[in-house]
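Worked example

This section walks through a single chain of length 162. The input is the sequence exactly as stored; nothing has been trimmed or padded.
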Amino acid sequence: MIVKRVSIPLDNTDLKCDLCGSNNIADTGQDYVCKDCGVVLTIQKLQYDRPYNEDIVQHSVRLGSTQIGTFRERNIHPHSFCLRRLSRFNSQCSNKETAENHASQEISRIFDVLSLPMACKSRVGEKFTEVWPQLQPGSRYKNPEKLAAILIYMVLKLENIA
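Given that input, the structure is written out below as tokens.
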């Protein structure tokens, strides 16, 4: 297997892995990852394309899990059992959290595509958190995508936006 070495910029030289203590850190664009053990570092990345605002903490958006190396490389590492356990623990979330995340993504997508006013977006999210737990299991409206569309329609009608 051929591994491409990526040079780390000079400003990343003081970074150190929290788990293994290595200085071999890669910048993935969204966050920093240790090349030796595959752990995503918990360092805040600042966005330089926007002016700094003290009221807003600018964290990178997590899109999914990041794993460095092949399956074999991750398993032969001395801390592989800890990494697997942490990965499994971090991926677990309740059904309510999963539904709210799916609904939030769907609401954002619909608002972006239809160019709807963002002032109503938070109200739709609040209505979702109120309505979703009250629906019966097995109901067709328990689906976050369907319920999000219905609630967007309802909120826009209540706000008299057509």
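What to look for: The first strand starts at residue 25 and ends at 27.
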